[in-house]
Specification:
globular; Thioredoxin-like_sf; alpha/beta; 5 strands; 5-stranded mixed beta sheet
């Protein structure tokens, strides 16, 4: 995916359809992964310990430009931080908004999350910029 390659060891005799499907699900993550029930497994099982969520309304006219900037920033942290898009319009994502104590009126927002210890920081922003994302990530990583 995205210019990365992962191989499943097929020499192992106990590979079945379930294990193959799990391998594909976990390794189908993109430079920016859209969070959904299908991708949740891969996101949670990612080897990257830092997740950066862009929590935004995909129906907004500003969405394509936000995503362009978010993807550009994701290139800078490839292999360090998993970049995730979370659509605030989906009912299934309301629990994530609640977890980060965000209301739709506070969006768009960036939320960075360290998976081993559940440490996280949320930043509400008027506009997404590559510089905002870089500054936010660098401060959290330090």
């Amino acid at each position: 995916v995205d210019s990365d390659r992962r191989d499943l060891d097929m020499n192992n005799r106990d590979v079945d359809a379930k294990k193959l499907a799990r391998f594909v699900r976990i390794n189908e993550l993109r430079l920016v992964t859209e969070y959904s029930p299908v991708t949740a497994i891969g996101v949670m099982q990612s080897s990257l310990q830092f997740n950066l969520l862009l929590i935004t309304d995909k129906m907004s006219p500003k969405h394509p430009e936000r995503m362009r900037k978010f993807r550009t920033a994701a290139e800078l942290y490839k292999g360090k931080i998993l970049f995730i898009l979370l659509d605030s319009n989906l009912k299934s994502n309301e629990r994530v908004l609640s977890y980060f104590q965000l209301k739709k009126s506070q969006l768009p927002a960036l939320a960075i999350f360290h998976t081993p210890d559940d440490e996280h920081v949320v930043l509400t922003v008027d506009e997404i910029s590559i510089e905002h994302v870089q500054d936010f990530c660098n401060r959290f990583l330090q």
